[in-house]
Amino acid sequence: MFTFLRLIRIMFVSFRYGLDELVISGIRHPWTERLLVVMRLGRKLHAPRGERLRLALETLGPIFVKFGQVLSTRRDLIPADIADELARLQDRVPPFPSEVAIASIRKELGRHPDELFASFEREPVASASIAQVHCAVLKDGRDVAVKVLRPNMAPVIDKDLRLLRAAATLIERISADGRRLKPREVVAEFDKYLHDELDLLREAANCSQLRRNFAPDGPRGDLLIVPEVMWDYCSSSIFTMERMRGIPVNHAERLVEAGVDLKKLARDGVEICFTQMFADGFFHADMHPGNIYVSDDPRTLGRYIALDFGIVGSLSEFDKNYLAQNFLAFFRRDYRQVARLHIESGWVPPGTREEELEGAIRACCEPYFDRPLAEISLGQVLLRLFQTSRRFHVEIQPQLVLLQKTLLNVEGLGRELDPSLDLWKTAKPYLERWMHERVGWAALRNNLRRESQQWAQMLPELPRLVHHQLARPDRSADTLAELQRLRAAQQQTNRLMAVIAGVLAVGVAVALWAVAR
Measured between alpha carbons, how far is 275 from 203 in angstroms, rounded to an integer? Predict the structure, then answer.
């Protein structure tokens, strides 16, 4: 019953905001125009299509808002005007009662919050579609933030996901554009992200890994602050971490008043982004202004603060090498190298002509290089590359989609802080230094040092293994004799099959002759 009523509401909201028109307009049929005229009767659809889609998703509730946020990252699949509008979606969800949060904490951690903490604030400081956050103080005096998952989220999410899958299947069947946009793949990707966010232990582990990569006492500690995880107060539905205080990164006036150097802040953001991607292969993939703060504490003034670790990206060694070489080839305008890298990666069909792909990439990127460097968007170039690659049936990997989203976020934030930020100029020395460390003598030395730990175990065994191999009796004559016997048996079998085939052929011929008489 719930599913039926939910479906009716979705259909009503879709009709109200003209989403049916968006679907039908993608159908190439002579009757489409007439059908659209009939369906517009009584409705005024003057707002742009992206705005109508955003308003519809906000009306349908938090799960659809979350879906729109994920959809906005797939700029390789959807038009730019829709992606820009969906990027404006924010979780505007009223908090659930504090009694429910307290009951959840008691169930998961085994004790009432008043027993676990020295103090626990009943009113949440933040509320989103998946969880809300309460401030508390541990008994040792440390300030913490307690993230509590909304109750009974999984059943509601699963029901809405079933409807989204059905809608995606329908769109693919009736619309050519729908098939091109691969809505079922997008829903599957959303399903994965959403269920990852429902496991707060996974988010806590992501936070812990990122903090280890930017350890306060390490060489990168002056770039990014990551809260400490309080593992004794965590479960799959509860995530307790060190409380962070700062200024949202998009509040430029407040940052200037606090004495933060905005140009340095913009450059630090680029360095943090590329360090996560290429040095660690593990990066925060949800770096919108709501999740990034800047410290106004005099001791750590101007350092970035990372929050919300539900979505992270990972890059393999192959991915890192591929991306770094692609970026450097772009910097040098070596489009043949870019095409070669695409083919060697295996993401382009083997029969793709290298010069044809090179020409497409040149047409995609050359217009950008005619502009001043400060006006070139690295994220947009990557986006255009993805879109061009679709012509050659390139399968865009999920981790690269997250990387593209992160680059666009970082570049947008950086240029909001410093409009003259040149991401290319800032990133190129870092990538060249990183590649030198990967392929030069320094890389060889580091690899030898890393592998030597394994050699220390294998080298003592080497003489014994060599002696064992040399002392084994020579079986080559026996093996050769066995192969000759097998060959003779195979030849005999072939002769027998030939005789049988001949007899059958004669029998068929006689039968046909008899029938013909």
Answer: 21
Q: How many CB atoms lie within 10 A of CB 420?
A: 8
Residue 348 CA neighbour count, 13 Å, CB half? 22
Amino acid identity at 402 = L
| β-bridge partners, 144 | 136, 242
Query: How far apart are alpha carbons 45 and 281 in whole angstroms?
Result: 45
C-alpha distance from residue 130 to each of 105, 212, 259, 458 (Å): 16, 26, 35, 50
Give the side-chain half-sphere CA count within 13 A for 208.
Answer: 12
Within a 13 Å sphere around the CA of 29, how many CA atoms are in the beta-carbon half? 13
Q: What span, in angstroms and rounded, lies between the C-alpha atoms of 86 and 50?
A: 7
Looking at the predicted structure, is the pLDDT value of residue 276 above 80?
yes
Min mean pLDDT across 54-68, 286-300, 458-472 is at 458-472
In whole angstroms, what separates CA 311 from the centre of its chain?
A: 8
Local structure of 38: helix, strand or coil:
helix
Beta-carbon contacts of residue 114 (< 8 Å; ≥ 6 apart): 120
Statement: residue 30 has pLDDT above 70: no
The Cα-based distances of 70 to 66, 237, 440 in angstroms read 6, 22, 39
pLDDT at 8: 77
Task: Burial-class residue 50 by CB neighbours within 10 Å (0-12, 13-18, 19+).
Answer: buried
**DSSP labels, 41-97:** TT----S-HHHHHHHHHHHH-HHHHHHHHHHHT-TTTS-HHHHHHHTT-----PPPP
Let me know: does 367 contact 360? Beta carbons within 8 Å. Answer: no
Q: How far apart are CA 25 and CA 34, in angstroms?
A: 11
Between CA 326 and CA 342 the distance in angstroms is 9
| The pairing of beta strand 238-242 with beta strand 143-149 | antiparallel
Query: Can you tell me which residue has the tokens 């800032």?
Result: 426
Phi, psi angle pair for 199, to nearest 5°: -100, 100
- Joined tokens for residue 156: 């509601």
Give me the catalytic one of 76, 268, 286, 296: 286
**Catalytic site residue 319?**
no
For residue 228, name the pLDDT band (cuts at 50, 70, 90).
very high
Instruction: Answer yes or no: is pLDDT of 286 > 70.
Output: yes
Count of other CB atoms within 10 angstroms of residue 12: 11
